[in-house]
Amino acid sequence: MSARKKVKQQEVSLPNVISLADHLFEINKKAHDSREGFKEIQEKWEALKKALAQITAHEEMLLDTARYLTSNLDEKEILTRIANGAMRVLHADEADIYLLSKDEDLLQPMVAIGPQYIQEILSAPLKVDASLTGKAVRQKRSIIVNDIRDETDAYQVPGTPVDTEERLIIAPLTDEDKVIGALCITRLGALFSMEDLKLAEAYAAFASSVLVNVNTHTDLEKEVEERMKAERALRESEKKYRELTDFLPQIIFEMDMKGRLTFVNRFAFRTMGFTYEDFEKGLNVYDFIEPEDRERAETSLSRLIDTETYPAQEFRIVRKDGSRFHAFFLASPILTRKQPVGFRGVIIDINARKQIEEALKQSEESYHGLFNSVDDAIYIQDEDGKFLDVNEGAAKMYGYSRGEMIGRTPQDIEAEGKNDLEKLQSLVHKAYKGEPQQYEFWGMRKKGQVFLQDVRLYQGTYYGKQVVISVATDITKRRMSENALKESEARYRQLVELSPDAIAIHSGGKFVYINPAGLKMLGAKSREDIIGKPVLSIVAPGYIDTVKNQLKFAEQNRKYQPPVIEQFIRLNKTIIDAEVVSIPITFDGKLAWQMVAHDISEQVRAQAKEQQATEELFKAYEATLEGWSHALEMRERETAGHSRRVADITVALCQKMGVPSDQLIQIRRGAILHDIGKLSIPDRILLKPEPLTKEEWVIMRQHPVFAFELLSPIKYLTPALEIPCNHHERWDGTGYPNGIKGEEIPLSARIFSVVDEWDALTSDRPYRRAWTKEAARQYLRDQRGKIFDPKVVDAFLKLMVVTGEFQKLGKSQ
């Protein structure tokens, strides 16, 4: 029972009880004034009156403490008032209040009221298992000790005397069924009664209630304060979150489980183009994802609910104005009570990265194209000389595949015993540090042939890593020539003099030597006609810039120049074609260039004749194709020149629509042979004047298939099959033979079908007169998007009406 309830129990009309007692006493006094028992009655009355006064004082103290409690929450001060009140009401000499420790082993003194030994009591905690107060706590009941000598659990507080006249009441302080402390009342002399025990329990109950209420109020106050701090922290966090997200150059969003946006940062408004009003009306994340990507996005987010992990996904994002960009989409679930209520994420624009990746891809393709287009061997080596990559020139030079070369070192491909490997390693290290190097290296091909290379080393980078780039040229032939020249200069001169090819030496841009074959090639009678003249004086005008660049490169690099085709001017002003090779040599102690020229004029003329023969053969092919077409027209009684006419117009329309020029010849051939498959259609069907039956139409519609069977074995005409095989297909898929539609139909066939229909409509036929051009134009307009490609129809009408070129091609109409 709480202290408050006990106070109310003891407020039962106390003045009335005292008045009634006085009244009864007066009656009894008058009635028994003479009786011997009056004294005994008087004594009982005095005892009752004293008890009632004690109850009154108790009530007053409780009320005073309750009033104080409402204005003060100091726990110790309130407990002191309670102990003081208990001591006065019970006429005690001392009152102490103990609180049970958390581990329930000790009773800590909180309040001590009395004339002496206060400090001794406050400094002496009581053990629960070794004290009278602990006994009451263990048993969870109040006890009266009127004879301390009979108690084995008694504990003497250090510094206090033993007094056999000491009487004790110990009442536990409880919170529901849990003991939280004890109230100890000490009296010297007079014994404690059960009424005293009840009063002590009332004070203990009141102290318990006070402790619980104070702790509850303190906890509540702390909770309120913590909640207010949390709310302030939350507001501050939300403010910082908003400021942070608004600062970030990425789209930050939150959405509910259905995709409705509940938060976006400022960057999202700027990037996506929607306004705050749009946001207030309601925006859905899935509306901003490319339709083709939405199902994947929904599946990924639904999987996120179960796994709580969501790797970056790439989607195409659609802005309010319809423009699109590629983006990474990252998200994590928002949980409330461990249940997902939405998602929080970021959208990162990766368009720039995509463009960079594409540029890098193109750059890498260009690099590999250039890397492999060089005839010389190129090696990418690390600091220790190991090959990280090689070009096709290196693989070809050694006879290994590129994969077999990568990972090897020069030691693995050298001719054993012919190279100083330690010096080679030193040169590689120097090049790695930025010092270009050059040396000669004897290598061995896969099949065992030994050859000599001129190797140059440079510092470079390869995919961001510092490397050595080695460029090697096979100089075996050159070295053999040099050695031969060193062995016998006479033999060299003899060979040069007798060489059927022109050999000349120039230094400083002027000729210093020329052999007889060179004189003959240039039409000179003596060396004086050539020696001392500038090299450029014999070069045809169209090749002067080429030769200048070669001379400049040769002067800077001093290396073998691969064969090139040049034209020279003979002294009689005629032009000759020559294949020229240049190598660096020493002549009269100076750097010079030996030029070997082979007259290829006859070869050039032969090639020209071969080209002419090829062109004539092509013309013959074209004539044959037109002959086939003409024969078909005659058989089908088609309008004369129909095939040539539609071919010319088709080519013109293809040019206007941007078809590459190298495809036009095959498109022309396909247009000429568009109905060649009808050669396989029997005359009874092809030339039938009456409408065809269903069975006959089945055969007639096979002529595109017959065209494929007829032309596909001729490799020369394979690229021209698109029109003969597909010109009866329709834009809406209702054509034949395959029923393909839209852009599944080859562009050339779509273009031709419009031209063919125009020519058919505007030409006289045995069964009808030609349509007017306006009627034919209107028909094409009506069928755009049904039979014909709309873009082709538009381009055709523009070509016909605007440019005027169509009329030139179609004069026979």
Description:
The chain has 813 residues and is an alpha+beta fold. Helices cover 48% and strands 20% of the residues. It contains 30 helices and 21 strands. Strands 3-2-1-6-5-4 form a six-stranded antiparallel β-sheet, sandwiched between helices. It is elongated, with a radius of gyration of 58 Å. The termini are far apart. Mean pLDDT is 80; it is low at 1-14, 34-38 and 807-813.
What would you say about this model in short?
The chain is an alpha+beta fold. Helix content is 48%, strand content 20%. The strands form four sheets. The protein has a six-stranded antiparallel sheet with strand order 3-2-1-6-5-4, with helices on both faces. Strands 8-7-11-10-9 form a five-stranded antiparallel sheet.
Sequence stretches where pLDDT stays below 50 over 5 or more residues = 1-14, 34-38, 807-813
Shape: elongated
Number of strands: 21
Alpha-carbon distance between the two ends: 119 Å
Number of helical stretches of at least 4 residues: 30
Query: Describe the biggest sheet?
Result: 6 strands, antiparallel
Radius of gyration: 58 Å
The helix/strand class is alpha+beta
Spatial order of the strands forming the largest sheet: 3-2-1-6-5-4
Helix content: 40-55%
Mean pLDDT: 80
What percent strand? 15-25%
